DNA sequence: ACTTGACGACTACGCCCGTAATCGATAGCT
DNA sequence: AGCTATCGATTACGGGCGTAGTCGTCAAGT
């Protein structure tokens, strides 16, 4: 699975949330958050098409874009890379780390407890 | 805190594990895993010095390098970035995801259970 | 003193990424 | 039939990163 860089990721998020969609529409939804011009968005769409992360249907003389890879799969790749690089491939130290650095609220911990209980079954 | 790219990270790992150390020594430890030439390692050391991630003591006419930033702090930054980007800043979904994708062994889950119990106290 | 070797500094260069303008074709309006 | 707006494709360009060669300097050996 191809690596998807930051800017392209944001385009994917739009299309994972709703698709298919034309370039114009994608650009409109990104504009508030990013300020990117339509031209920029088109470039990103093109690159994503080229690397197979998006597919397109032709509607008249324009494309309707939709994801060709599942968000789940991409997230899996990214998080695995991080865990490998930072924690020697072991997930537990990551959680311990998040806890240590105060990135887990009480609600998070409660939720984790439930999750872990579920997993242990 | 400056962002530390992949190749430079590997240099940091060496020095986090043992320091201070000369360029030659760093290169020798990296060689088996990376195959990088001494010149490449020197470049990376220079860049890390420039961005303040390393400090150096002069020993005769050469430098002894040592980390100027804690590994903990860098790891915190990286993992926060990932969690923000992929999981909307919430850590629990990350754990759920690791579980779903089978990246947690039974041992991991047991360990997590213990950790969570500890955190919940 | 002279050469040799090792050091850090500087330079190089191709690729990827973020950002965008421009181009050629075409659909639609007038 | 001609103009205009719009589409995707192509090209651009600065900066960062991965990888490495070269240069000026100085220490050490002979």
Automatic annotation (TrEMBL), chains A, B:
<comment type="similarity">
    <text>Belongs to the BlaI transcriptional regulatory family.</text>
</comment>
<dbReference type="Pfam" id="PF03965">
    <property type="entry name" value="Penicillinase_R"/>
</dbReference>
<protein>
    <submittedName>
        <fullName>Putative transcriptional regulator</fullName>
    </submittedName>
</protein>
<keyword id="KW-0804">Transcription</keyword>
<dbReference type="InterPro" id="IPR005650">
    <property type="entry name" value="BlaI_family"/>
</dbReference>
<dbReference type="InterPro" id="IPR036388">
    <property type="entry name" value="WH-like_DNA-bd_sf"/>
</dbReference>
<keyword id="KW-0805">Transcription regulation</keyword>
<dbReference type="InterPro" id="IPR036390">
    <property type="entry name" value="WH_DNA-bd_sf"/>
</dbReference>
<dbReference type="GO" id="GO:0045892">
    <property type="term" value="P:negative regulation of DNA-templated transcription"/>
</dbReference>
<keyword id="KW-0238">DNA-binding</keyword>
<dbReference type="GO" id="GO:0003677">
    <property type="term" value="F:DNA binding"/>
</dbReference>
């Amino acid at each position: 699975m191809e690596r998807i860089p930051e800017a392209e990721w944001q385009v994917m998020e739009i299309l994972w949330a709703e698709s298919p969609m034309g370039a114009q529409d994608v650009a409109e939804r990104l504009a508030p958050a990013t300020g990117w011009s339509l031209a920029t968005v088109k470039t990103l769409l093109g690159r994503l098409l080229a690397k197979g992360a998006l597919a397109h249907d032709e509607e008249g003389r324009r494309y309707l874009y939709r994801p060709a890879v599942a968000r789940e799969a991409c997230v899996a790749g990214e998080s695995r890379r991080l865990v490998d690089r930072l924690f020697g491939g072991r997930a537990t130290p990551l959680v311990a780390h998040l806890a240590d650095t105060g990135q887990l609220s009480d609600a998070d911990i409660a939720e984790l407890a439930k999750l872990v209980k579920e997993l242990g079954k």
